[in-house]
Inverse folding.
């Protein structure tokens, strides 16, 4: 099976582990980066079909990372879904202004994730919901 690369950029280790499990269960190759600088360093070699990018990270916020991504000609049209617990209209507007393709509010479950990524990557319709990202 063709495993499409999806880059997940988020500093929350537990959350990214669950997210990686869900994405991999969809037949995608989820590559996790917990640091913005690392994500930018691997971008060219990875050539992801989709990027899930957290808005709030310690060393460089997601909007700054997104601007760096969009500054690279090869990634001007790569779908980037901004993920954040901040769901105020001005945060969403800032994300779209910086070049986000879509916005996904935390916490979300596997069904929400599937709906968010389905327009951008092919995933099998297995009906399996592996887990959700909400803390227990």
């Amino acid at each position: 099976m063709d495993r499409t690369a999806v880059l997940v950029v988020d500093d929350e280790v537990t959350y990214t582990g669950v997210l990686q499990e869900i994405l991999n269960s969809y037949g995608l190759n989820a590559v996790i980066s917990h640091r913005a600088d690392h994500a930018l360093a691997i971008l060219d070699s990875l050539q992801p079909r989709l990027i899930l990018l957290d808005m709030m990270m310690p060393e460089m916020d997601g909007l700054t990372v997104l601007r760096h991504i969009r500054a690279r000609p090869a990634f001007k049209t790569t779908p980037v879904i901004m993920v954040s617990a901040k769901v105020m209209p001005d945060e969403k507007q800032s994300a779209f202004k910086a070049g986000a393709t879509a916005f996904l509010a935390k916490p979300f479950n596997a069904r929400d994730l599937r709906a968010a990524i389905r327009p951008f990557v092919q995933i099998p319709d297995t009906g399996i919901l592996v887990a959700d990202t909400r803390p227990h």
About this structure: The helical segments are 13-25, 36-46, 62-71, 89-98, 110-117. Residues 96 and 130 are 29 Å apart (CA to CA). Confidence is low (pLDDT under 50) at residues 127-136.
